[in-house]
Amino acid sequence: MTTQVDPITTRLTPAAARTPDREPPKPGVRRPDARRRRRLGPGRPIPFGAAVGPLLLLAVWSLGSLTGLLDERTLSAPWTVLTTTGDLIASGRLQESLLISTQRAGLGLAFGVLIGTVLALVAGLSRWGEAIIDGPVQIKRAIPALALLPLLILWLGIDERMKVVTIVLGVFVPVYIHTHNGLRSIDSRYVELAESLRLSPAQFVRRVVLPGALPGFLLGLRFAVVSAWLALVVVEQINSTSGIGYMMELARQYGQTDIIIVGLVLYGILGLLSDGAVRLVQRRALSWRRTLAD
Amino acid sequence: MATHPGGLTVDTVAEVDTRPVVRVRELTRRFGGRTVLDGLDLEIRENEFVALLGRSGSGKSTLLRALAGLDPDVAGEGEIDVPANSSVIFQDARLLPWQRVLANVVLGSTGAAAFRRGAERLAEVGLAGRERAWPNQLSGGEQQRVALARALVSEPRLLLADEPFGALDALTRIRMHGLLRELCQRHRPAVLLVTHDVDEAIALADRVLVLDEGRITVDTAITLPTPREHRHPRFLAYRERLLAALGVDQPPTAAGVGPASASLGVGPASASLGVGPASASPDGRIATEEVSR
């Protein structure tokens, strides 16, 4: 045999493997570290990929205001909104409105998620539960929260109770639908396994049912978070004396587009932040899954 | 016992406890109009390794699921007496993907000692150090080893295995055979292994049953020295006979098989009954061919 060192073995040394092989492959030379990306599937994650779309939107908006394409009375410029935000913070109005709005959304979300989950568990684990619960929930799903508002105002008045109940009604439906679906799609083989291991009903729920339904629950939660903010907008712009929606409604009466925009941006940021939080939880809690997007 | 057709009553060595672990009487199971198990009787004794062969659709899995109590919705009757402490191994490893390996192993057990025992069983199946792995990070063979560890963690008196190696590649399967034998010798459960692989049955079992049309048509003890050599002439004789019982017509002088059986003078399947281990069975239980149709 020859004494010459094999070119392939040299390239496999740790030092060579550490430096990513960026230059185009020389013909006839194997690229030991070339980890080609998966051909199907969406490809590698983009750093800060989630920010690309919103930033693009902001750029278009700025451009429109700069060139005068967007009238100040139709849509205030981003910098006007920024200074208005500063004023609102200085006067304390923004914090006050934000606090009360977050409280309402949080309270409605908490109760809604709880109710949705419990209903989904009852309906998912027993045929009677499903027979009793599923129909009414599906009917409720077909009725928009807005349409229920007149009745809720008649029943509960226009105070905080009505607001929270409206949010709860918007929130529990997606949580119920997706958790119930997740529960029902748990592989029956796992149920059989639980039986063969003689798990108690409590162990079965804790080890099989809840983790099995978790992906569905978290998806429902993402929808729920969005519906909570949506319902908040509705209730705060009707007969309200506090909150972001009230602040915007007041601004409408005085024609202050900048404050309306501040409210809108605030709603948007709150929605994005809460959705991001749920997605973070999702990634942590479902780390056992290998999916297309990972 | 009255069912001994040969009336063999050989008092023998080691086996003291002859009470069966599993006792099935007149077991019938029906799916729709079809009778899958038809008045089946079966006994499995302490520490006995029984392999159940049968064509696909012969009711092998139905019998196993009946013993495991996993068929509450299936029509039928009969007496089943199995120990409360029995485990099942399925064809798929059936690990909960959202639980780590060790948590899967101790899924059925409670108490502080469970995790220690689970880790011990994992070490026994050669997976020490993988306790914190997720099931989908393991290969198919490794997953099935975790399932084996899970089945043995409660020290069951009966192990029911439904084609546990059916989904594995040939190489992995051979390794799993060795592992299963070793573990069964250490933990000494009675085993009912459902398989369609004749070689697997002969290589592993103390006794092989053939299920056909809802009844056990062959019940034969395997008396081969361990480790069982697939080229051993008696291995081949068993093989030929069981394949015949399963309705597989073999070419009479297939390469390799022909000379071996010819040298023993066991050409046709019926003749091989003569060299069968029936008479050689040391403990005098049903070890003769019993065709009940």
TrEMBL record, chain A:
The chain crosses the membrane at residues 45-64, 107-129, 141-158, 164-183, 204-232, 259-281. The lineage of its organism: Bacteria, Bacillati, Actinomycetota, Actinomycetes, Micromonosporales. The keyword Methyltransferase does not apply. Its main location: membrane. This is ABC transporter permease. It is found in: Cell membrane. It comes from the Bacteria. PROSITE patterns: ABC_TM1. PANTHER family: ALIPHATIC SULFONATES TRANSPORT PERMEASE PROTEIN SSUC-RELATED (PTHR30151:SF38), ALKANE SULFONATE ABC TRANSPORTER-RELATED, MEMBRANE SUBUNIT (PTHR30151). The gene is ssuC_2. It is a multi-pass membrane protein. Belongs to the binding-protein-dependent transport system permease family. Signal peptide: none annotated. Residues 94-278 form the ABC transmembrane type-1 domain. Residues 7-18 have a biased composition (Low complexity). Residues 1-42 are annotated as: Disordered. Keywords: Cell membrane, Membrane, Transmembrane, Transmembrane helix, Transport.
UniProtKB/TrEMBL annotation, chain B:
PANTHER family: ALIPHATIC SULFONATES IMPORT ATP-BINDING PROTEIN SSUB, TAURINE IMPORT ATP-BINDING PROTEIN-RELATED. SUPFAM superfamilies: P-loop containing nucleoside triphosphate hydrolases (SSF52540). Residues 22-238 form the ABC transporter domain. It comes from the Bacteria. Pfam families: ABC_tran (PF00005). GO terms for molecular function: ATP binding. The gene is ssuB_2. Keywords: ATP-binding, Cell membrane, Membrane, Nucleotide-binding, Translocase, Transport. This is Aliphatic sulfonate ABC transporter ATP-binding protein. It comes from Plantactinospora endophytica. Residues 271-293 are annotated as: Disordered.
